[in-house]
Amino acid sequence: LESSRTKMRSAVSVREGQGVVLLCGPAPRAGELSFAWIFNEYPSFVQEDSRRFVSQETGHLYIAKVEPSDVGNYTCVVTSSVTNSQALGSPTPLVLRTDGVMGEYEPKIEVQFPETLPAAKGSTVRLECFALGNPVPQINWRRTDGLPFPSKIKLRKSNGMIEIPNFQQEDAGLYECITENSRGKNIARGRLTYYAKPHWIQTIKDVEVAVEDTLYWDCRASGKPKPSYRWLKNGDQLSIEGRIQIENGALTISNLNLTDSGRYQCIAENKHGVIYSSAELRVVASAPDFSKNPMKKLIQVQIGSTVDFECKPKASPKAKCSWKKGGEQLHENERIMLLKDGGLRIANVTKVDAGTYTCLAANQFGTASGSTNLIVTEPTRITLAPSNMDVTVGESVVLPCQVQHDPVLDITFTWYFNGTLTDFKRDASHFEKVGGSASGDLMIRNIQLKHSGKYVCMVKTEVDSVASAADLIVRGSPGPPEHVRVDEITDTTAQISWQEGTDNHSPVTTYTIQARTPFSVGWQRATTVPDVIDGKTFTTTVVDLNPWVEYEFRVVATNKIGGGEPSLPSEKVRTEEAVPEIPPSEVSGGGGSRSELVITWDPIPEELQNGEGFGYVVAFRPSGTTTWIQTVVTSPDTPKYVFRNESILPFSPYEVKVGVYNNKGEGPFSSVTTVFSAEEEPSTAPSGVSATSLSSSAIEVSWAPIPWKMSNGRLLGYEVRYWNNGQKEESSNRVKAAGNETSVRITGLRSNLAYYTAVRAYNSAGAGPFSATVNATTKKPPPSQPPGNVVWNVTDSRVILSWEEVTALGNESEVTGYKVLYRTSSQSSVNVLSTEQTTAELWLQFNDDYIIEVKATSEGGDGTSSEQILIPRLASMDARGSGPSVLNIFSVSSFLATVFSLTLNSVL
């Protein structure tokens, strides 16, 4: 191919519709080759389909029916999988003839498989089949015996190749390739035959056999055809003679001697292959020797048992054995047996059997001996065994296991629970072994249901073991009932059934039904008929259910121990619909805008609506009339209805009731209640409005209440607005008087200034008109000068004060009097003494310090206070001073009643 790469082959000229074969050319068949074809230029490869086929057997390109698009140059590409190299052939031009189009013709098979094709076991077999024809032939495959193809067989290349992986005996047979078009069909046939190289089933292995013994080597292989066998010894053919026999691959050599040692080969072969298995035979001859298999130094058994002594020295040929106890030869009797393998057996052992036993082994090459010491012990007995017990969950018990045993033996205790060894470390929270080394008592704490079962105490020594078992029944609250289902459902009832669960060894006494809905808080106990469900009843009727609500049910079993775990919930079921039974509550109303009647209620929760299509029927009428006005509210969540009509008078009473309905019908109405229509603003202003000056910073406004009929609703109070000469009426300040109050004090005003006021009433609908404006002028401000030169003196319990007269300025209110304010230093409440003089006399208890100050009073209010005067505790001596003053503090030896020479006012 490589040598012809540059040469252009002669053109292949065909008619349109004709089939053609393009030859790849001579290709070396070295290793595995694969073929492909380039169309015109690399890397445009010919795509195989039902019309084009590249044979991996010949390498040729087959075109079943040439089309104009096939015209071009074709190059064969050969790839070696061994060297991973490629070779390209010379291009072959394909051209169309101009003398017409090829007519239709029947399939002509150009690629077919051999009439007989041997296939090896496990190999992958590929059969090719392709035909030229017009129209393009269809290709199908079948076995002539009619058996279907197994799933492992794959059809590839548009059925141009069948692939059989892992070829087996059952894949052998006659295969047909059927090529067919509208002009006819042709069939190619070929037989696949199965063969298998020999394969070992059993090989031979090196052996060591004693002289005079017999060798048996089994050598077996499979294959198709069946393999034959030959044996070689040290590379030479093994001859069959008296001692040497070969049968179906098995070699037997009897009465071995040392010359039989050597390297042996078993050969299995058929026409497809040969396999070998080799092994070495060593024939040995030796005197008895106990070094490789010594006898036991010590055997301990209990009285009454059977003991076996082994005596298996290495010896070729096999040694003959005899036994002695001490120096006395042993012979067989009813208790003593000499075994065929050279061992010794003593049955029903007693104390006198204790001692040293010696085995004497001999063959023609020598003798040897070995000894075993036998110790006979008392049997182990359980003196206090565990017994069957019934316990309750949460209790603790001890299962006893106490024994009597031979003191020379070590003893161990183990416990099994339901066949499993108890791990005291892992299960320490419940299991503990107690009682010391001579006792194996088992304590079980805080018993649970899982601890119910069989307990076995196992006692072991070096020579024997004993066991005792007990059943522990744990009684607990019942397990959950099973298979809870709803058998029948109505609007208010449900028929429930269930199957009993485990009673945990205490019979169920009662069952309880629990229900849950999307509206309930968790699970709630359901009402049933009968009310008490006994433990032998597995069905009941749940009553008092709400219609049209989705329910789940579960069952709880109870026994003498207590209530158990609830069952799994039943499937969700919905009760049937029913007419609503509960009317809305809290029917009320009022408020709203002009000409409105507002009716409100608490919506009915979904679980009480009893069905779909739920809504409300709102009925109302003016008080004193007989005809109801009704309307329907279709939304179940709506909490109110507003009726608008210009004929509705403000704050008029209406009788109101609200009913319910759903798709099943109408339910009851609520009880009748009175609701007032919306209010309007008061229609008149308050009368008798007056304003009075109280001080330099406060005035009082008063008025007469408006008549109830003019309030147009529930009067909430009055609003007073006020402003001074320097303000605009629109920016006036406002204060409110709640309820039925008819006056209000306005403070924080400026002194000696005229203030204008007006009053109006208000309710929930708004405020009415203002009254006529009235005014009042605040007083001049109080004197700004404090009393000066305050002098005091104390005689006994009497305090005499004096001060200079305060003269008001021209813009201040005239002085009308004075106030003396005094308190103890430990109190916050102030006492006030009013006087028109510039002197005052106080009678005080001198058990505390006193703080005193003086201020002038006027129509405009109180003036500025003098500085505070501190009068300390005084003894009976006289004292005097002037303020402000700080004096020593004297202790008081007696308490005197406080006496005032003038009227005292206490101000808190």
Automatic annotation (TrEMBL):
Region (Disordered): 566-593
Pfam families, per database record: fn3, I-set, Ig_3
Membrane topology classification: Lipid-anchor; GPI-anchor
Superkingdom: Eukaryota
Species name: Onychorhynchus coronatus
Subunit structure: Interacts with PTPRG.
A single GO cellular-component term on record: axon
GO biological process: axon guidance; brain development
Chief location category: membrane
CDD domains to which the protein is assigned, alphabetical: FN3
Protein purpose: Contactins mediate cell surface interactions during nervous system development. Has some neurite outgrowth-promoting activity.
InterPro entries: FN3_dom, FN3_sf, Ig-like_dom, Ig-like_dom_sf, Ig-like_fold, Ig_I-set, Ig_sub, Ig_sub2
GO MF terms held by the record: cell-cell adhesion mediator activity
Residues of the Ig-like domain: 1-89, 107-188, 198-282, 288-377, 379-467
Stated name of the protein: Contactin-3
SMART domains to which the protein is assigned, alphabetical: FN3, IG, IGc2
Residue intervals of the Fibronectin type-III domain: 480-578, 583-680, 685-781, 782-878
